[in-house]
Amino acid sequence: MNKVLVAYASKSLQVQGIAQAVARALRSRCLLINMSDKAFDRDVGKLEDYRAVVLGTPVKFGRAHSDFVKFVKRNKKELTAKKLIIYACGGASPEKCEDRIKKKLPMPINKASVLYFHFEEGEKVDPDALNNLCREAERIY
After folding, report:
1. Which domains, and CATH codes, for the chain?
2. Of 53, 59, 73, 100, which one has the fewest beta carbons inside 10 Å?
3. Measured between alpha carbons, how far is residue 55 from residues 72, 73, 104, 139 in Å?
4. Per-residue pLDDT tens for 41-59?
5. Helix, strand or coil, per DSSP, at residue 23
6. Rounded to whole angstroms, how far apart are CA atoms 68 and 97?
7. pTM of the entire structure?
């Protein structure tokens, strides 16, 4: 239980790049993986083996990536017991985007303590927001 799971659901270079930055901040203390990979479940194993979880998803037309939603629903019991950070790229305003994602989360997680980060859609990621996300990921470790 010494690792952090850093998982993202996207082919977007922005979502992937943010996950890679978090993984670099955590160094060898994490598993970085795309939720869309066919071997995702096998490679991740049991969530109880992770100290914390960082999840990333794009938000398009008010919807989180389907692999993100499936993963959260399938693992709601385990995720409620974890330190959890969620970041989203795109969507409307940060408040609307966060609200839409929280509505997709199963109830126990929705009420749990979840740190949430929002990044504007586009090629350039706000370096201050990225640094804050990486700092929080290091802190929860």
Report:
1. 3-140 (3.40.50.360)
2. 73
3. 9, 13, 14, 16
4. 888 888 988 989 999 998 8
5. helix
6. 14
7. 0.89
